[in-house]
């Protein structure tokens, strides 16, 4: 049903400096590139990655003793210290991760990649690593965008990437309960293919779906593009088996229980810091008999979010519901061509299920959207979005090749807080980009920005925050493009997903760190969560205490100490190390 | 919309030996009483509770220092050591709890009842109790049926019941987000009345609704009779504030988050062992515009559960869906009169929501139930169930007065495990009751059991397990009535709720302990959860390790130690004490 554009076996089939398979990459379209260069008033600049031979990759610190002990568990063929294996497990896939790699910095590469064949081997690897003081990074799809694969090395003899690619089986299908048992190394497409053979679907399709693993979905509390219909990943997990340094932990005997706290919810979102998920039991659904996607134009973001709120609170949501703001719509990243919507905000609605349900729900949604002033754009707009739904990371690679910077961040809040959260984060991003622009004019040339591709929402550009505070620097071009969409909707609130595109300039990693910090502060101060579905990793850790309190951090530390007494699992990821 | 039969202020308006207000009690109907006596072949025996003056209530151990320190926090009027206050917070409302009280045993009564006015006073009370080594029982509605209010006293200077009745306000209504903020001491009816003034409902109505508190709903992962439509209580909680001995803990900034494990799920189900919930933020819904309840007759329990499974998996569930097995239907406890259904299984379906939705869902459900051979019994059968929905605990009091014993237990499992779970638990209960009957013939008289009120499902009585293994004893009458219903349905499985009615005989508490242990073992061995919505307390603790593993218990201990380092909160409840 969906186009899979790349191999699904594991990251060894992908480019080491970016996303996906080599043949899936195309350069940035010339019209888009020219438009961005003019908007940002920057000269053309090609910025390809360095060659593999130019990489700064430290020698592996894995001792002979460790190598032999690990090989004794998994077999010599499954302990890898070659450059290709190590570089491909170096960090995750945030833009900062990629920029470092593209510049030749593989300093965070693991010393070895170990590929166990099953649960017992994972347990044994953990014992070896605890004994020899090796840090362990559980590695699924390697698609973290929050530093979830870059542990602190201090105090360890080395870092081992525990790649779960060989745990890739669908092991049981309970068709009556609509519950399947599978292993964590399965990537999205492989899992769906295996389920389809039994007439089922998980329906979980985040943008990283082609490469992300089912274990990673669990470890990061992933949320798919169809969360409105199929639910967040955590809501699909009925059971888990976890290999921890303290032993095996199995959870989940029933659809629901009152036998104390729901401890499955401690494993979900544990980001490899508490244990290695080696088995999952998941709720699945029958493959949808009917599928329909369509586009709508709403007059503005406020009208669109109000309509989504009504749909959610009246239990009338489509399977997929995503609303782009004016800027994202105008930029053509909402599922249509540039300016295709003649202004306003693009909303994509998708319906998957029994034929009767699809027809009835489509009609109910049309009534609500029509009453909200929405204009139907037909099925082609929806199909267009479906075709491009996994395209974002490839586009980012093309932008990075062309001297541009692109990154995303996301949050969620209750409906009453959402307008303030949206405005504050957007304005903060624009202001921070403007400040960066003012501080780094060297790589820009003077040119007027074209209409319709500025930092503020369309129609607000002239008086909007893009111009505010930029002074002389802003006159040289827009500081960046700040776009937003709502893609996960609940009765009580929604997510906000921001995409930033701006000139790469010098030292883009440090620049983004400052911009992201300003946005994160805005999120925390406006009452949003620091992450709706990207997880904590290392990047969001400075904001975690504001979210869960000192007691929350103390609880995470206590749980980690119980399950991982030597602290070998992803040290410094998720759980702040005691100071 | 619902008949509230008792005061809702706090348990001080209730009878000390049973359920609800004194004027809400009526004796067991003569026809039912005669039928049961004949079925069980027992002589008439009135077993009223002892008088309040006959109670064994130990003198309060509260020291003058403690009394003054507590009074210094909450004021002298809110520290109570009188017999009435203490007896009314003695244990919960399991049948064993009531039988002990009715026999005059108030040995577990707290030494004092303290009623704080707000969060800061709760924190201060906890500090006093930690300093003076007093165990603290957070007390909401006092309706625990699993020993959740009977902590271990060993090592403590005394036990304080921390009654949250004064924290009874609805403090904020966010109509846009459909999120309200309230305090934990609100009972079900008071909360609904406060919400109704704003046009909202929580929709959470467990059988204990008249007296249970909203804090208790959270602390025990309660599930309401309308869970199919409104969701389990845990799914309605978006935020919590908890007073712990280690300080204040606030959780929940957004409808959903990936900021690590969902720590709210540690507080939910924590049964007062981690902290005192002092504020909740809850998802509410608009008051339903339309309401319709109806009855159906299904040919058997298997056909009925299959139909419920189809409804759940096709997302077509009514708001209330409960199916009684043949015995419960025949006994008239399924919402109809005795034998009113002419055999088969009674199913109650309730619909609450927008008028269009009620009509459409009712039609969709009728199609599924009709195809499953269901026969509609009309609205009166549904209305009858609504009228009696909170009646169970009053009926139990009447049974206890009449020399009978009545108690419930519950579990849940995946659909594929449900038939085995049902049969095994039912047969185990019948066999255990038969063994108890054989061991205690002294209070029985010889008489033949009438048809239709035996231990097995109707139609199986002759060859069923009731007769098996009972030998000579069984000839004297049925050993008991074992009934079951499904009341909480999920796409992946369902709950099973068993009700046992049998002769009281001598030492019924010890007898039930043996019967319950056999049933609990059957649940664990057949893969069910030890409790779907009654919680762990003290009673289910022997089975907790089987459910969450040694590591699960270790995690609970670590979390408790972090939040309650002196272990003063509900010692021995939920978290097994280290041996």
From TrEMBL, chains A, B:
<dbReference type="Pfam" id="PF02913">
    <property type="entry name" value="FAD-oxidase_C"/>
</dbReference>
<dbReference type="InterPro" id="IPR016166">
    <property type="entry name" value="FAD-bd_PCMH"/>
</dbReference>
<comment type="similarity">
    <text>Belongs to the FAD-binding oxidoreductase/transferase type 4 family.</text>
</comment>
<dbReference type="InterPro" id="IPR036318">
    <property type="entry name" value="FAD-bd_PCMH-like_sf"/>
</dbReference>
<feature type="binding site">
    <location>
        <begin position="271"/>
        <end position="277"/>
    </location>
    <ligand>
        <name>FAD</name>
    </ligand>
</feature>
<keyword id="KW-0274">FAD</keyword>
<feature type="domain" description="FAD-binding PCMH-type">
    <location>
        <begin position="106"/>
        <end position="287"/>
    </location>
</feature>
<dbReference type="Pfam" id="PF01565">
    <property type="entry name" value="FAD_binding_4"/>
</dbReference>
<feature type="compositionally biased region" description="Low complexity">
    <location>
        <begin position="446"/>
        <end position="470"/>
    </location>
</feature>
<feature type="active site" description="Proton donor/acceptor">
    <location>
        <position position="497"/>
    </location>
</feature>
<dbReference type="InterPro" id="IPR006094">
    <property type="entry name" value="Oxid_FAD_bind_N"/>
</dbReference>
<keyword id="KW-0808">Transferase</keyword>
<keyword id="KW-0285">Flavoprotein</keyword>
<dbReference type="InterPro" id="IPR016171">
    <property type="entry name" value="Vanillyl_alc_oxidase_C-sub2"/>
</dbReference>
<protein>
    <submittedName>
        <fullName>Alkylglycerone-phosphate synthase</fullName>
        <ecNumber>2.5.1.26</ecNumber>
    </submittedName>
</protein>
<feature type="binding site">
    <location>
        <begin position="220"/>
        <end position="223"/>
    </location>
    <ligand>
        <name>FAD</name>
    </ligand>
</feature>
<dbReference type="GO" id="GO:0008609">
    <property type="term" value="F:alkylglycerone-phosphate synthase activity"/>
</dbReference>
<dbReference type="InterPro" id="IPR004113">
    <property type="entry name" value="FAD-bd_oxidored_4_C"/>
</dbReference>
<dbReference type="InterPro" id="IPR016169">
    <property type="entry name" value="FAD-bd_PCMH_sub2"/>
</dbReference>
<dbReference type="InterPro" id="IPR025650">
    <property type="entry name" value="Alkyl-DHAP_Synthase"/>
</dbReference>
<feature type="region of interest" description="Disordered">
    <location>
        <begin position="441"/>
        <end position="470"/>
    </location>
</feature>
<dbReference type="InterPro" id="IPR016164">
    <property type="entry name" value="FAD-linked_Oxase-like_C"/>
</dbReference>
<feature type="binding site">
    <location>
        <begin position="138"/>
        <end position="144"/>
    </location>
    <ligand>
        <name>FAD</name>
    </ligand>
</feature>
<feature type="site" description="Important for enzyme activity">
    <location>
        <position position="322"/>
    </location>
</feature>
<dbReference type="GO" id="GO:0008610">
    <property type="term" value="P:lipid biosynthetic process"/>
</dbReference>
<feature type="binding site">
    <location>
        <position position="396"/>
    </location>
    <ligand>
        <name>substrate</name>
    </ligand>
</feature>
<dbReference type="GO" id="GO:0071949">
    <property type="term" value="F:FAD binding"/>
</dbReference>
């Amino acid at each position: 049903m969906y186009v899979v554009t790349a191999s699904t076996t594991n990251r060894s089939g992908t480019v080491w400096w970016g996303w996906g398979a080599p043949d899936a990459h195309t350069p940035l379209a010339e019209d888009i590139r020219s438009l961005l260069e003019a908007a940002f008033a920057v000269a053309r600049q090609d910025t390809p990655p360095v060659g593999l031979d130019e990489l700064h990759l430290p020698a592996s610190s894995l001792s002979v003793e460790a190598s032999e002990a690990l090989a004794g568990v998994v077999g010599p063929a499954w302990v890898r210290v070659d450059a290709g294996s190590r570089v491909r497990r170096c960090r995750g896939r945030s833009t900062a991760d990629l920029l470092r790699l593209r510049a030749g910095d593989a300093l965070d590469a693991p010393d070895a990649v170990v590929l166990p064949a099953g649960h017992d081997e994972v347990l044994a690897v953990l014992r070896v690593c605890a004994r020899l003081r090796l840090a362990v990074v559980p590695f699924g799809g390697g698609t973290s965008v929050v530093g979830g694969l870059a542990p602190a090395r201090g105090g360890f003899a080395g870092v081992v990437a525990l790649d779960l690619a060989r745990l890739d089986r669908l092991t049981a299908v309970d068709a009556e309960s609509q519950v399947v048992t599978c292993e964590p190394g399965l990537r999205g497409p492989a899992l769906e293919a295996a389920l389809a053979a039994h007439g089922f679907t998980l329906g979980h399709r985040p943008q990283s779906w082609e490469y992300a693993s089912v274990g990673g979905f669990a470890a990061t509390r992933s949320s798919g593009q169809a969360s409105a219909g199929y639910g967040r990943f955590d809501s699909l997990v009925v059971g888990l088996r976890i290999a921890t340094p303290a032993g095996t932990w199995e959870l989940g005997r029933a659809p629901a229980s009152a036998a104390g706290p729901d401890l499955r919810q401690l494993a979900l979102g544990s980001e490899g810091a508490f244990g290695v998920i080696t088995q999952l039991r998941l709720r699945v659904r029958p493959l949808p008999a009917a599928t329909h996607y369509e586009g709508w134009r709403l007059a503005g973001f406020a009208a669109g979010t109000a309509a989504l709120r009504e749909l959610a609170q009246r239990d009338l949501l489509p399977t997929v519901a995503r609303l782009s703001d004016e800027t994202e719509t105008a930029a053509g990243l909402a599922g249509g061509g540039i300016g295709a919507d003649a202004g306003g905000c693009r909303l994509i609605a998708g319906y998957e299920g029994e034929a009767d349900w699809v027809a009835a729900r489509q009609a109910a949604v049309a009534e609500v959207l029509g009453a909200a002033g929405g204009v139907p754009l037909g099925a082609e707009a929806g199909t267009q979005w479906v075709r491009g739904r996994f395209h974002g990371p490839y586009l980012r690679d093309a932008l990075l090749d062309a001297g541009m910077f692109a990154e995303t961040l996301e949050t969620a809040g209750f409906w009453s807080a959402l307008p303030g959260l949206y405005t504050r984060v957007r304005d903060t991003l624009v202001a921070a980009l403007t400040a960066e622009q003012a501080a780094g004019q060297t790589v820009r040339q003077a040119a007027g920005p074209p209409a319709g591709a500025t930092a503020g929402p369309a129609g607000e550009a002239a008086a909007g925050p893009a111009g505010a505070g930029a002074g002389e620097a802003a006159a040289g071009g827009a500081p960046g493009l700040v776009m937003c969409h709502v893609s996960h909707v609940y009765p009580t609130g929604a997510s906000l997903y921001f995409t930033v595109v701006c000139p790469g300039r010098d030292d883009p990693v440090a620049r983004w760190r400052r911009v992201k910090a300003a946005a994160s502060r805005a999120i925390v101060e406006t009452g949003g969560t620091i992450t709706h579905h990207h997880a904590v990793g290392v990047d969001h850790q400075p904001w975690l205490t504001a979210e869960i309190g000192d007691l929350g951090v103390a609880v995470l530390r206590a749980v980690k100490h119980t399950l991982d007494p030597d602290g070998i699992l992803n040290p410094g990821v998720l759980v702040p190390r005691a100071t």
